[in-house]
Amino acid sequence: MRINLIQATMAAAALMLPAAISAQSCGNDVKYRIPYKNTYVKEPLTAENIFRVMKPDSIAIGSFEEARKVLPAPIWNGHSKEIRNTLLNLKQMGGK
Fold first, then answer.
1. pLDDT top residue among 18 and 15
2. Residue 89 and residue 64: Cα distance in Å, rounded?
3. Domains in the chain, number
4. What is the spatial distance between Cα 14 and Cα 34, in angstroms, rounded to a whole number?
5. 11, 28, 38, 77: which sits with the fewest CB atoms below 10 Å from its CB?
6. In percent, how much of the chain has pLDDT > 70?
7. What range defines the domain where residue 9 resides?
8. 86 against 1, higher pLDDT
9. Where on the phi/psi map is residue 47: left (φ > 0), alpha (ψ -120 to 50), or beta?
10. H or E segment and range at residue 6
11. Residue 78 pLDDT more than 80?
12. Residue 78: inside a domain
């Protein structure tokens, strides 16, 4: 009698397993066979966000000398050598 109860419980659990997996479907289960719960919540205001569909503005990057005109002057008392080396490295990385 006890074995029949265990077998019946196991059979019922086996029948409910596909329903539990499909209840947590993410939409890609058939393709990837990954059963997990999709926790994504659609936000209606996302559709109104114009930045999601805007084309990027392509601008040419200016030279280091142009950027240096608008950047603040670095201040680090007693470390003028380090500041000079840093500025030289930045100028070389800019390629201009």
1. 15
2. 11
3. 2
4. 18
5. 77
6. 70
7. 2-52
8. 86
9. alpha
10. helix 2-23
11. yes
12. yes
Residue 64: CB atoms within 10 A of its CB come to 18
Q: Kindly list the distances between the CA atom of residue 23 and the CA atoms of 18, 62, 78, in Å, as whole numbers in the listed order.
A: 8, 55, 67
- What local confidence, expressed as pLDDT, does residue 55 receive? 92
Q: Is residue 42 part of a domain?
A: yes
- 3-state SS, 38-70, equals CCCCCCHHHHHCHHHCCCCCCCCCCCHHHHHHH
Q: What is the pLDDT of residue 81?
A: 92
* 15 band by pLDDT with thresholds 50, 70 and 90: low
pLDDT score of 69: 87
**Does 11 lie in the same domain as 38?**
yes
Q: Does some domain include residue 14?
A: yes
For 7-32, what is the mean pLDDT?
62
Chain centroid to CA 92? 32
Q: Is the four-CA dihedral 43, 44, 48, 53 of positive or negative sign? A: positive
C-alpha span between 63 and 67 (Å, rounded): 7
